[in-house]
From TrEMBL:
Belongs to the ACBP family. Keywords: Lipid-binding. The lineage of its organism: Eukaryota, Fungi, Dikarya, Basidiomycota, Ustilaginomycotina. This is ACB domain-containing protein. It comes from Pseudozyma flocculosa PF-1. SUPFAM superfamilies: Acyl-CoA binding protein (SSF47027). GO terms for biological process: fatty acid metabolic process.
């Protein structure tokens, strides 16, 4: 039941959520996942902020930068907690309850 195992399971679940399924993370949720994932896997941001015409790149860079200074374990735990919060809201929809159990038992 390590944080690493729960994080890997959460990443797998986020990647497998159907685009038209009952659990739909918002764009803000998706950016949060992105930033925490990058921080957990790469550490602090080392690149310069994308230019003004690359809006998607700027949003993603900002999401990563907002997690600067967090340890790998802290970023992983926050990623897991964020996914569990979304799944709890939709506990009765789709595979949410199953996903919660999978994360908790990882």
């Amino acid at each position: 039941m390590s944080v690493e195992a729960k994080f890997q399971k959460a990443v797998q679940i986020v990647g497998s959520l159907p685009k038209d399924g009952p659990v739909q993370p918002t764009q803000d949720d998706q950016l949060k996942f992105y930033g925490l994932f990058k921080q957990a896997n790469n550490g602090d941001v080392t690149t310069s902020r994308p230019g003004m015409f690359d809006l998607q790149g700027k949003y993603k860079w900002d999401a990563w930068k907002s997690n600067e200074g967090k340890s790998k374990e802290q970023a992983q735990q926050e990623y897991v907690d964020a996914l569990l919060a979304i799944l709890e809201k939709h506990k009765d929809a789709g595979d949410s309850a199953k996903h919660i159990e999978e994360i908790n038992s990882a």
